[in-house]
Specification:
Radius of gyration: 23 Å
Mean pLDDT: 92
Strand order of the largest sheet: 8-7-6-5-9-10-11
Strand content: 5-15%
Helix content: 40-55%
Number of domains: 2
Order of helices and strands: EHEHEHEHHHHEHEHHHEEHEHEHHEH
Low-confidence stretches: none
Distance between the termini: 24 Å
Structural class: alpha/beta
CATH architecture of the largest domain: 3-Layer(aba) Sandwich
CATH class of the largest domain: Alpha Beta
Number of helices: 16
Length: 405
């Protein structure tokens, strides 16, 4: 089912076959009060209208001609039906870089506090429904954000409009621990890998939080700038306040403020926004950790299980696993399961970055290679300390050679 989230596409949809809606769509978060006459002249079999502004007669006509109208649910600090991913400006609305307690006043924290008050697993039906509808809309918006906006127009525009067909970007994920500090050599390595892959046209995604996740988006953020600007950014990020707790840099009072200074002093150059695009996929389950401000788009979920599985499934061109703890270990075997059973229709690279860590500190590598023995995706496993090898393996991968069908 096509999603319609602009007035222009809504009008185009009705124009495909004058007088009736030609194929089912979900029309989301649009003000349609100026479209009343056109709505009255059409029929809406199997169409769904989510959180749209409609007059009562228009809403009644849609329902009477086979459509479904679902209004936005009230009483929540978040918008239940979204047509786009979050931006940094939205999530950090209310944040003042000059205020040491600025993050607590942001929109992101308002939503997290309500999440805590209502419970991670709320009994109230309307709360559960609102969160699930929100997460569904985020998934739909995420699919749109993965499309290649630079692709040439389809020859059959009508067919392309109906199907929503457009090539996807080549997506690579970097997973790793939130405890990785900005001063660690591994943090800089992850940022350099991400910068190089971004320059080569890959769309970088991560869990959208601190540590290795933040480094992923920092690399993409500076990809269109001179090489020296990454070191300038790291110099701004590294200093920690006196008494800072090891492994919990995200809890520093100025953690967010240092990142904000990088955004202001080293912004993405105008005209390169699509080139430097990256998507963070965090969750309000870990809402005490601020999401990274270096991601250009943020797909924030309530349900961590949906977020985790979807994040790995999106990475069609591979996943790089930097050092991390229980969460990263879980993600390695979750990705291995997707590869093992071919649930995504192809086998994709899994690169464990940090040989000593993954063989000694957390000896995942021996078990992973044992599990993959005799399976096609075993060819795509790698253990390395080389940034160049990571980039070369991702770049050399051809998904058409590894179909799981």
């Amino acid at each position: 089912m096509r999603q319609i989230d602009t007035i222009a596409d809504f009008e185009r949809w009705l124009d495909v076959e004058s007088g009736s809606a030609p194929f089912p769509v979900a029309v989301q978060s649009l003000d349609l009060r100026d479209q009343e006459q056109r709505i009255a002249a059409a029929t809406f079999d199997d169409a769904i209208f989510l959180a749209c502004e409609l007059s009562e007669p228009a809403a009644g006509h849609i329902v009477m001609t086979g459509g479904v109208v679902i209004p936005d649910l009230s009483g929540f600090d978040f918008t239940v039906h979204r047509s786009t991913l979050y931006t940094v400006a939205e999530l950090f609305d209310g944040f003042d870089p000059a205020d040491p307690d600025g993050y607590a006043k942001s929109y992101d924290q308002w939503v997290h506090q309500q999440y805590l008050q209502q419970g991670a697993s709320p009994r109230a039906f309307n709360t559960s429904l609102a969160r699930r509808l929100h997460d569904h809309s985020i998934t739909e918006a995420l699919e749109d954000a993965l499309l290649d906006e630079t692709a040439a127009p389809a020859e059959d525009e009508a067919a392309a409009f109906e199907s929503g067909a457009k090539p996807r970007r080549s997506v690579v994920a970097i997973m790793g621990g939130h405890s990785m500090e900005r001063s660690e050599p591994m943090y800089a390595s992850v940022a350099r890998i991400s910068r190089e892959l971004t320059r080569r046209g890959f769309l970088m995604i991560s869990g959208g939080g601190p540590g290795a996740m933040e480094a992923t988006h920092l690399g993409a953020f500076v990809a269109a700038r001179p090489d020296d600007d990454l070191e300038r950014a790291l110099a701004l990020l590294r200093p920690r306040p006196s008494g800072a707790v090891s492994g919990k840099e995200y809890a520093d009072g100025d953690w967010l403020h240092r990142a904000w200074a990088v955004r202001e002093q080293l912004p993405i150059p105008a005209g390169t926004e699509e080139q430097c695009k990256s998507i963070g996929v965090p969750t309000w389950l870990y809402g005490h950790e601020p999401p990274t401000v270096f991601a250009t788009h943020i797909a924030k979920y309530f349900a961590n299980s949906v977020r985790e599985d979807g994040l790995l499934a999106l990475a069609s061109h591979g996943v790089v696993f930097a050092p991390g703890s229980a969460g990263t270990t879980q993600e390695i075997f979750q990705d291995a399961a997707q590869n093992h059973y071919g649930t995504q229709g192809l086998y994709s690279p899994m690169i464990l970055f940090g040989s000593d860590f993954w063989t000694t500190t957390r000896p995942v590598w021996p078990l992973l290679t044992h599990v993959a023995e005799g399976h096609r995706y075993g060819e795509l496993l790698a253990l390395t300390d080389s940034e160049t090898e990571v980039v070369d393996r991702i770049t050399a991968y051809d998904p058409t050679d590894y179909s799981a069908d």
